[in-house]
Amino acid sequence: SSELTQDPAVSVALGQTVRITCQGDSLRSYYTNWHQQKPGQAPVLVIYGKDNRPSGIPDRFSGSSSGNTATLTITGAQAEDEADYYCNSRDSSGNLRVFGGGTKLTVL
Amino acid sequence: QVQLQESGPRLLKPSETLSLTCSVSGYSIRSGYFWGWIRQPPGKGLEWIGSIYHSGSTHYNPSLESRVTISVDTSKNQFSLKLSSVTAADTAVYYCAREEFDFWGQGTLVTVSS
Q1: pLDDT, tens only, A19-65
Q2: Which helix (H) or strand (E) holds B58?
Q3: Nearest to B47 by CA among B93, B100, B103, B109
Q4: For residue A53, what is the nearest residue in chain B, using CA coordinates?
Q5: CA A42, CA B12: separation in Å to the nearest integer?
Q6: A25, A27, A11: which is closest to A85 by C-alpha?
Q7: Measured between beta carbons, which residues in chain A are less than 8 angstroms from residue B70?
Q8: Is A10 on the interface with B (CB under 8 A)?
Q9: Which residues lie below 8 Å from residue B26, measured CB to CB, with a gap of 6+?
Q10: Chain A: residue nearest B105 by CA?
């Protein structure tokens, strides 16, 4: 399968923990990257590989995976974390890339 | 620091061919990685279009493959996208990126309208 499924919207109270999930058959075989996108801006990679953060990404962002589900966890969500979040990985062939539909995170 | 910049016409008529170029600085395409194109229709999600290696090896999204060609010019450190027979549904912000998706261009809005 080449599809990745995300919940369209999630909300979290300021300072609380939120988990954003991504489901797809190919996630059993390949790592998931996570991207944050704010309005009018290009996406920014926040998690890659097993659970790695690029330089400059706060350590409140973490990633995990189990079976066909990958999870992005924000521990102690901040107002500036309000954004759209996209997962991406490979399809079952390993050659093609695929993005999830995106999750809009609202910080209350 | 790796930087990418998209360039090309921003307004097309239906049936025309979209042509964009991504100029890469701070890293030689010959050094490795696949280099890709991603698009985002207004108010919608990201869609991977395809990617290319410096050798010219390509991968394309099956839903677009019949209309897409991605090429590379290592002498200019650039790679390009051509999408033929465009319609209003191809109106989107087009991004280029290194395909680990650690570096992205700023994106360029291409509008298809008669």
Answers
A1: 999 999 999 999 999 999 999 999 999 999 989 999 999 999 999 99
A2: strand B58-60
A3: B93
A4: B102
A5: 22
A6: A11
A7: none
A8: no
A9: B1, B2, B3
A10: A42
